[in-house]
Design goal:
The structure holds two protein chains of two kinds. Chain A is built from 13 helices and 21 strands. By secondary structure, chain A is an alpha/beta fold. Chain A folds into two domains: about 35-55 and about 310-430, Lyase, Ornithine Decarboxylase, Chain A, domain 1, CATH 2.40.37.10; about 55-310, TIM Barrel, CATH 3.20.20. In chain A, strands 4, 14, 15, 16, 17, 18, 19, 20 and 21 form a nine-stranded mixed β-sheet that branches. In chain A, strands 5-6-7-8-9-11-12-13 form an eight-stranded parallel beta barrel, surrounded by seven helices. Chain A is globular and about 85 Å long. Chain B is of the alpha+beta class. Helix content of chain B is about 45%, strand content about 15%. Chain B has helices spanning about 30-40, 45-55, 60-75; strands at about 10, 15, 20-25. The longest helix of chain B is centred in the C-terminal third of the chain and has 17 residues, at about 60-75. Chain B is globular, with a radius of gyration of 12 Å. The N and C termini of chain B lie close together (about 5 Å). The chains are: A alpha/beta, B alpha+beta. Chains A and B meet through strand 1 of A and strand 3, helix 1 and helix 3 of B. Strand 1 of chain A pairs antiparallel with strand 3 (about 20-25) of chain B.
Chain lengths: ~450, ~90
């Protein structure tokens, strides 16, 4: 006779009606497969922890976003935000779906060029563009979004030296009624900095002013703020047209749309409460069509949303290292997933699901990572089914920023897998090896002998 | 090791301690262990009974058993004069 599935013995005090920081149980079904591929087989083949990206979800997200905007506005262009996830396979999916590239450093710019992106379809943002970066961008006819006056003057000089007419926009920051107001990037709208910069560009005659750009925040939970931003950029564009008889070709509303993650401290889950693409599209396009643009001269609307496009397509698979008790009797579970690879654990209460069957019994649990560092906490308080050592978990909505902001710290970074539309997994980034790390080091001769 | 004689356990895993008025839920394997403890079985006997029925190994079970006993002590559900024998 086969034996029964073992579950740890557990006793839980009943505290009916008492609120606690762990909340109620949220997971009712295990996640045993992702896009038809079993979690167990993925871990056995590619190791644990393991990042998994779903091509199906990525394509579905970008198509959903495009549909939301294109059904409301005649001219829409998406640009893939490289910093959100610049793995070549991921960028290629977005470029195949028609996205341009939006980069914020010389490194990202070179990555886009190397991937084969047409220089004219690269938007170059960010406060630190070197003369070398700008020269490349000018020669490739890329769209340069100016962040400050020093950059504006550098581009003016380069335009003369290179005998080129750079295509530029300015980044505008503004009060859209949300807190905190982002005013560190670009030129301020309310105090006249933005209008001043536009006048300088137009009077210099050295650059082609093609657009206006803003990026009002991140993980924005208010769609109406984008409506205000769109109205303010439209006013600037119309003012330029009236004063200089010059047409602004595009308005770039940047990114900042939230994914389905739940921000720490939120009362309700993000999947239920965060605004959708349709909400943002309605706010932005309504503001633009209600502005004073003539119908035949509506500017191209560019969107650089990153997080909302990729976060929900990413999963992080991991394994239980150990179960412990804290001094107060709380369940502490250690996973092999640390904050060095799951940076977003600092921002979100990530949804975490066991990857094998479980009963309805739960424990109030604190999930720690494997790092010998006190800050390595994946979830401070969650109510989870009973997990045994060696069992697997799936962490949801991890596709944005983790594969760019991760760091090689204490442990090595793991494999990344993409599951294609035919449910076939592909290794798209290999796990690091000790050799990768030490190959960049140089030891002075006098330190080569440690005795 | 002995479960507090006042503790009442239902088949479905509801444990009530009339001394403190507190109630607990216990999963099925926990109920089995509590009943074995009530019958004053020792660790070897409990371990044998569990390993015969469930797919686990002795080391894993004994680690979980000690954790379970620790929580019973934490909730003061073991006989006071026996708690040091774990």
């Amino acid at each position: 006779m086969s034996k029964l599935r073992y579950e740890r013995p557990v006793i839980k005090k009943l505290e009916t009606g008492m609120p606690n920081k762990f909340g109620s149980r949220t997971e009712y079904e295990p996640v045993t497969q992702i896009d038809g591929v079993s979690v167990k087989s993925l871990i056995s083949e590619y190791g644990s922890p393991l990042f998994v990206l779903s091509e199906k979800t990525i394509r579905s997200s970008i198509r959903k976003a495009k549909k939301a905007f294109e059904t409301r506005y005649p001219r829409v262009q998406f640009a893939w935000s490289y910093k959100t996830n610049y793995l070549n396979a991921v960028c290629s999916i977005f470029h195949q779906e028609g996205s341009w590239a939006e980069v914020v450093s010389g490194f990202e710019y070179d990555k886009a060029i190397k991937l084969g992106v047409d220089g004219r379809k690269i938007i170059f943002n960010g406060p630190d563009k070197s003369e070398e970066d700008l020269t490349k961008a000018i020669n490739n006819d890329s769209l340069i979004h100016i962040d400050h006056l020093d950059e504006l003057y550098t581009i003016t000089e380069l335009a003369e030296t290179l005998k080129k007419r750079p295509r530029v926009a300015i980044r505008v920051n503004m009060d859209t009624g949300v807190y905190p107001m982002w005013d560190r990037f670009g030129f301020n709208y309310e105090n006249g900095q933005a209008w001043d910069a536009l006048n300088k560009i137009m009077h210099s005659g050295k650059m082609e002013l093609v657009g206006l750009h803003c990026h009002i925040g991140t993980f924005m939970l208010s769609a109406s703020a984008y409506g205000i931003a769109a109205s303010k950029l439209a006013e600037l564009a119309i003012a330029v047209e009236q004063k200089f008889n010059h047409e602004i070709k595009y308005i770039d509303l940047g990114g900042g749309f939230p994914s389905r993650n739940t921000l720490k401290g939120s009362f309700l889950p993000g999947s239920d409460t965060n605004p959708s693409f349709d909400d943002f599209a309605e706010a932005i396009t309504t503001a633009l069509v209600n502005s004073n643009f003539r119908k035949e001269r509506l500017p191209l609307l560019i969107l650089e949303t990153g997080r909302a496009m990729i976060d929900d397509a990413g999963f992080l698979l991991g394994t239980v290292v150990s179960n412990k008790r804290s001094s107060t009797g709380r369940r502490n579970t250690i996973l092999d997933i640390g904050v060095n690879i799951l940076f977003t654990a600092f921002w979100y209460d990530h949804r975490i699901t066991p990857a094998q069957t479980f009963t309805h019994y739960t424990e109030d649990t604190c999930l720690y990572g494997p790092l010998c560092m006190n800050i390595d906490v994946i979830r401070e308080s969650t109510t989870l089914p009973l997990l045994n050592k060696g069992e697997h978990v799936v962490i949801h909505n991890v596709g944005a920023y983790n594969m760019t902001q991760w760091m090689q710290f204490i442990t090595l970074r793991p494999n990344v897998i993409l599951i294609d539309l035919d449910e076939k997994p592909h290794l798209i980034r290999s796990r690091e090896a000790l050799e990768n790390i030490i190959s960049m080091e140089r030891t002075p001769e006098h330190l080569s002998n440690i005795g | 090791m002995k479960l507090s004689k006042n503790a009442a356990i239902s088949e479905s895993g509801l444990l009530f301690n009339p001394v403190t008025g507190e109630s607990y839920t216990v999963n099925p394997i926990g109920v089995e262990i509590l009943n074995l403890l009530k019958d004053e079985k020792d660790l070897d006997q409990i371990s044998k009974a569990i390993l015969e029925k469930y797919s686990t190994d002795r080391v894993s079970f004994e680690k979980d058993y000690q954790d379970f006993i620790g929580m019973l002590q934490h909730y003061k559900l073991l006989e006071r004069n026996e708690t040091t024998k774990a």
